[in-house]
Amino acid sequence: MSLTTVFSELWRLIKDNWLKIFIGGVIFSILTVLIQIFLTQYADRLFAEPVEEEIPGQREYLTEIYSQEPAGFEFIAQKEDGDLFANSFLFDEYYTSEIVVDQLEEETGVEISDVLEAEENLGMIKTSQYRGSLAGIRNTSSNVITFRVHVGETAQENLRVARWIEEEVRNNSLPFSETLNTVLLTPSQTGELLQGEDFLKVSSPEALGDQSVSPANGQVNRILYAGVGFILGLILTLALLILYRLLAKKIDYAFEYSWDFDDHHFVLNRSDEAFQKLLNQMTHSSYADHQIILAEDGSDAYGLALDRLDEVESPPEEVVILVKNKETSKKWFNRTFELVDNYKSHKKVIHIID
Question: Transmembrane stretches, by residue range (predicted)?
Fold first, then answer.
């Protein structure tokens, strides 16, 4: 079997069924968008606790919190080997853990769990690019760690929380800080200590606005899903068409049957003006005196007379198997091909298409 012939026939399949393939792509595109809408808008209502009613109030609550003046302090931490401690994320991850938050609230009298919960419900989770309202930010040039507190309803509440955390850091009360030597550079104070790109990583009214879902973004996502669905639909429809042809009883395309590598295979178009001339050339060769031509219906429309190889009295040197589009059955072709193999004759397969 020739790969060139297979790809050529696949292309013919696409041209013959382009409208079906296109419609399949459109249908799959629509289904993809509908599924995406269902998952984003309705799945949470079915399988999770509803939070949509709480989000507006929580957004207003965080807007009020973020409008307050933050507090913070600066320090450096040195390891036993003399290197500076560079993982500032550990500090704010530790101080936002549930056990530590409970202790902090009890000893400072400042409720911060509502702020952390509201941030989580609004999707404002900690990442390498966004550290939230309790954040340890390291200056990459100096390795100075700025711990910023922005969880209180007033600036004084932020300062109380900052002083409590500062005391913990100075006393090395953290599980991972026992071997660290911490040096306080700037004691706890109200006011913004972060500037430039570092400020973009922490809580602020602007950062809260960035977390809102833009309708334009939703439209872009739907267009993206529609495009992906359309492409997948084209591929799936083509695959189904190929599967249908492989399971069909009648031969339509050359990839539906196989032939040996050293056999000659030709595809002729019946509508070609030179069709009869080409057919005559291909059915006559140096083996013409010892050649037979087989077709399933035994029609003599092309000068044929046989449909069964066992009608031949002596083994032929060449057998031409004629495959007529949508007329020749795969069962007949496979049986005939096996019989020709038994005769060890030279084989030539001519596939006539409309």
Answer: 21-39, 223-244
Strand partners, 76: 183
**Backbone phi, then psi, for 183, in 5-degree steps?**
-120, 120
- pLDDT tens readout for residues 250-280: 999 999 998 888 888 888 888 777 777 777 7
Contact 233, 26 (CB under 8 A): yes
CA 20/CA 26 separation, integer angstroms:
10
| Pairing of the two strands 71-78 and 134-138 | unpaired
The model's pLDDT over 83-100, given as tens digits with 9 standing for 90+, comes to 888 888 888 888 888 999
pTM for the whole structure:
0.52
Cβ–Cβ under 8 Å, residues 123 and 40 = no
Distant-in-sequence contacts of 280-284, Cβ < 8 A, 24+ apart:
282/320, 282/348, 282/350, 283/320, 283/350
Up-side HSE of residue 135: CA atoms within 13 Å toward CB?
A: 26
Beta-carbon contacts of 95 under 8 Å, excluding residues fewer than 6 positions away, are 101, 104, 134, 165
Question: Taking phi first (over 0 means left), then psi (-120 to 50 degrees means alpha), and beta for anything else, what does residue 228 get?
Answer: alpha
